[in-house]
Amino acid sequence: MSDPQQKSYKKYIPNPEGLNLELHLKAVETGLLHIQRCLSCDKARQPPRYYCSACFSSEYEFVPVSGEGFMYSFAINHFTVDRAWIEEVPYVTAVVQLVEGPRVVGALRNAEPQDVNLGDPVLVSVEPRGEEFAFIWVDKVQ
Which of 21, 75, 92, 94 has its CA 20 to 30 A from that of 85? Predict the structure, then answer.
């Protein structure tokens, strides 16, 4: 009896729309993590919104940020519905508090789930996938 060949799956690439599309286009264009900043009061925010929660202005821009921050929260995923992530299970979905203020969500890489702690210093980066989307990755800083 022969071994069945294991299928190779590609990770699902979302098709962002609206403000999320604007955000991802900046990341794809520059290779840098961006956040939205209010042009009226300078408040940084993530996820992007059409109106500032501080001053209600509709004027904004997307600005690059350092990606430096710390592990604010995380979830260890032991199951995935996307077959392309099966070999990654268990993996960590991380909520990072950026030094610039807002929090971002990304997938932790280069660290085992049992080695993750709240407050760990991390660096967030983007990896363009296609012309309109970028994965958000989180790496522990050693």
Answer: 21
- Whether the CB-CB separation of 62 and 36 falls below 8 Å is answered with yes
pLDDT (tens digit, 9 = 90+) per residue, 65-83? 999 999 999 999 999 888 8
Round to whole Å and give the CA distance between 81 and 42. 39
Integer Cα distance of 56 and 13 in angstroms: 32
Nearest-angstrom CA–CA distance, 45 and 38: 8
- Helix/strand/coil (H/E/C) assignment for every residue in 52-71: CCCCCCCCEEEEECCCEEEE
- The whole model's pTM is what? 0.87
Locate tokens 């983007």: which residue?
A: 126
Q: Is 129 exposed, middle or buried (0-12, 13-18, 19+ CB in 10 A)?
A: middle
